[in-house]
Amino acid sequence: MFLNTLSEKNRRDFMKLSSMGVFGASFSGWMNVLAARAATTAANPKAKAKHCILVWQDGGPSHKDTWDLKPESKGAGDFKQIKTSATGIQISEHLPKLAQWMNQGVLIRGMSTAEGAHPRAKYNMHTGYREGQGGLVYPSIGAIVSKEIGRADASIPNYVTIGGRSFGSGFIGPKHQPLIVSDPNRGVQDLASQVSTGQFDNRVGLLQELESAFYHDYQADSINDHKTTYARAVTMMKSKEAKAFDLSAEPSSSRSAFASDNFSQGLLMARRLVEVGVPFVEVGLGGWDTHQDNFARLKDNLLPKLDGGVAALLKDLKEHGLLDSTLVIVMGEFGRTPNINTRGDKPGRDHFPKAWSLAMFGAGLKHGTVYGKTDKEGGTVEEGKTNAMDFLATVCTLLGVDYTKENETPTKRPIRIVDKAGKPITSLIA
Amino acid sequence: MWIRKTIATLSLTIAVGMIVSQASSNAADGDTKADKKKAKQLKLLEAKKKAEAEKPPEPANGGKAVVISKTPPAAPAKPMATEALAKMIDMGIDKPLKDAKIQVSSQSSDAEFLRRVCLDITGVVPTVERASAFLDDRSPDKRAKLINELLSAPEFGKHQSDIWTVMMNPIDSENRFVSKAPLREWLTEKFNANMHWDTMAYELMTATGDLDKNGATGYMMANRGVDKMTDSVGKLFLGVQIQCAQCHNHPFTHWKQTEYWGLAQFFYKVNVSNPRAAKDGGTITVNEDGRVNRKVNALPEAAKHVSAKYLGSDEVKLNSSEPYRPALAQWICTPSNPFFAKAFVNRIWSQYFGRGIVNPVDDLSDENVPTHPELLANLSKEFAASGFDIKHLIRGICNSQAYQRSSKPLGDNRDDKTMFSHQGIKVLTAEQLFDSLAAVLGVPGGGKDGGKAKMAPAPKGGPQGPRDQFALFFMGTETAKPTEYEAGIPQALRLMNSPLMANGRLLSAANRIAEVARPATTPDKAIEKLYLGTLSRRPSTDELKKMKDYVAKQTDPKQAYSDVMWVLLNSSEFTLNR
Lengths: 430, 578
Hints:
The structure holds 2 protein chains of 2 kinds. By secondary structure, chain A is of the alpha/beta class. Chain A has helices at 2-19, 28-35, 96-101, 118-127, 141-149, 197-218, 221-238, 252-255, 262-275, 294-319, 388-398; strands at 51-57, 81-83, 90-92, 105-111, 159-162, 179-181, 280-285, 326-331, 335-336, 351-352, 356-362, 369-371, 373-374, 381-383, 406-408, 414-416. Chain A folds into 2 domains: 57-187 and 246-428, Alkaline Phosphatase, subunit A (3-Layer(aba) Sandwich); 189-241. Chain A has an 8-stranded mixed β-sheet with strand order 6-5-7-1-8-11-4-12, sandwiched between helices. A two-stranded antiparallel sheet of chain A has the order 2-3. In chain A, strands 9-10 form a two-stranded antiparallel sheet. Chain B is mainly alpha-helical. Among the domains of chain B are: 7-76 and 179-332, no CATH class; 430-453 and 461-577, no CATH class. Chain B is built from 24 helices and 5 strands. The model of chain B is unreliable at 1-32, 52-76 and 446-459 (pLDDT under 50). The chains are: A alpha/beta, B mainly alpha. Chains A and B meet through helix 1, helix 4, helix 6, helix 7 and strand 16 of A and helix 11, strand 4, helix 19, helix 22 and helix 23 of B.
């Protein structure tokens, strides 16, 4: 049944690609077709945000050391808070560059979620569902955005993750799986042919002939699926959009604004992808699981990297005229304990899903707003409690995706994008 | 077909199911005495069970405080001859087709049959030698002979094991430390020895001991927690999706929460040690030592007043001094069980036809009507009567005309998707694809040794060699169907452009298969052999001409064979099972 539903769609896509000459008999059609393509998404015209860059702080960042400092509390830690460009909002002194962008962003300080183990929490924050719930594998927000506002005929996938594997498309099918870029400096794996362009084209030409004969005899949907996937892959190899994966093509003036570490380079790639129309890019930065040595690790490494990288990204998006159409989310899977643990001489903070924070910048937001409030220890949410479903309903709304829509599983079970209990935070939406 | 508005809308707060049962490793380590005692008990139980099994179909009760429903079995006493079984299948398929006036496709060509049956039984394409020998064989019974040969090959067990391992050790963040290898090897061995399904299922469901000594424990190990065990046993051995009833009474089937928690009671004494222990070289164990572990398996409100109960059947009074799982397994693994034989038959059918008689394959319920109810009933009866003989069932299927039909549609039967008027075209599993590519390209880790590539034993459940890595990549982190690889853009890019497809490798494979570098090799011969080695058939006149023209046009004709190889391996005909 899954194949049938997939195939109906793929068949249409295939027709589209065929009629454009992408997978027709002639090769000359390829480049012309691709050149004619505009760098837009199929986004809802009413939504301001057409793209989303999710900056994932893998391991769970400490909210009390980033967005929600509690200088008077017991486990206040080493850091001071500083004023930002947004009236009344103070954040960590180690995020000075982002402090200047705070008037272009919002904070959610009332995150309160149910999962305290890394994989389950990551799953929950990416899908809005809990791992194993109802015996299904749910699509991550990137796959949902790909499906709902990505262009079906885009020459590169609508969901790209950079710097590590994220969560996939679950029951909505392989078409919305993320394209994974492990190392931004090396680009997409297996994107370049092993042989010269001439020889590659010869091969593809011969393959097409073989395929048509096989389809003629057997007429199965799965043969069409195979053809469509190959057509897409070849289109991508040949497309000018795929150049977005090649950072060496970036002018040195804008490239030099990003630090040389993989995370910052990944952010640069994210902007290049947004520029060519990719609606969802996730960029990972690991190391936030600071059970030990929390303060030094944050101060010397993680926070400067995050601060410099994301500030450079925001500036770069702005300069390219993309900040008005791009939502940038900065978050991890949970917060960290309000108290400092007693693990050895370099203490840290442990997992804490009960109360935590995240930040968003850019398109569609009511800038300079804070939603939610924790108690004086940063251990309990006192106002504006927000769970994974509320958060994802908010992101969907910002991107013009109807979060109440039902997608069908392979066995025709209708599953809402965000489960019934989720409600968007309207006060954050412009 | 699923009916609208079901579990999706259910409140998350009833996440009672998320009881994560990870018994502390201390608890498991401290109880070696109890373990030994239990092993003895189990052996006794086993012996008892085996003795009972010899005089089927009376279910074993063993004098325990369990009540086993004694539905008199309607199964015949002896297995049918293969021809009779095949005929029964054909009658079950042909009559509805005739009644519906749907055209029937012709018999498969030898080449279609050869490739299909090799992939279905052994999970890998045939070699050039096997292909040409079979195609040139003139004996009338060559198909039946090939089926028997393949069923005796060690790859039979390996292929079944690949399929069942994916289902029994599902991809789940909590399984990242559970090594798949012991379970996979156990399954391979048992499938190859043709251990009958009732014994195999019994051993899997009741397994105890260390993972490295008893691979069957890998099943419970990878489904830790009463909820997962209940769901998995429901799906795999009963063909029933009972998981929805965990949180609520199923609105459209008769499964109530009491059924779910009634079934779940049988797993409350299972103690699984934390697989993380294996990281530091520790042993990981499954045991059932006589105490209900309420601390680990906290009982949710919904389950508090529910008695142990066989699915859709009687309540049972369990003897708290005995392990619980054997009582359940004894009820399941019998000819009289209403689900057990059907569930397996339907899964095997779907493996061999690309679609079950009931779909989804694990949703046997009154509301989900089989396309061929009588055939399913008869096949299940026969499977039970044969003592759950797996190879007997598969041999019967493969010898049927229905299985041996061409997958080429004929006339308007193209639109028939449910009546089996023509064979289905199946997407290869990730392992089938890897093994077939590896066999053609001569890559190590494929073919015969693929199941247990000798690597340093990896403590984690992660990929353990090129084959596992390939399978993981082609399966994605999650897959819609455990038997189909994920055909997305990254996978296509890998098949087209990865070092696996480097020119040198393609050429050396072409040389090995067709000696293309030898001056004496004519293009005709070379192309024929390349077709035989990849697509298991000879090229048509038209194809041969096309390929010859192509090769002749290239400046270096010998180099051109790498193109031919590349095209054949990237064709849908190669990545599908027609």
